[in-house]
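Pasting as-is:
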Amino acid sequence: MDKFVEHSAMIIVILMYFIQQRVFITPEQLEKKHREIIDEIEHKFASLQSFKDLKFQFTEVKEKIDRMYDLLIDLK
């Protein structure tokens, strides 16, 4: 305990520096940043379900093109 009393002024200065530089954040600030990140991700990236739907549509289009190609080859 004597060590803390002896270095209390330095500890207070260091803590005030950390608070001033915002090294430590509050849970509210963390939650706000988390919401911002989630919103940004929703705008920039597609969901897994929409990716799967798009992949299925590409598969259907590929199958139709293959059928058309086969029909054109059969006509020759």
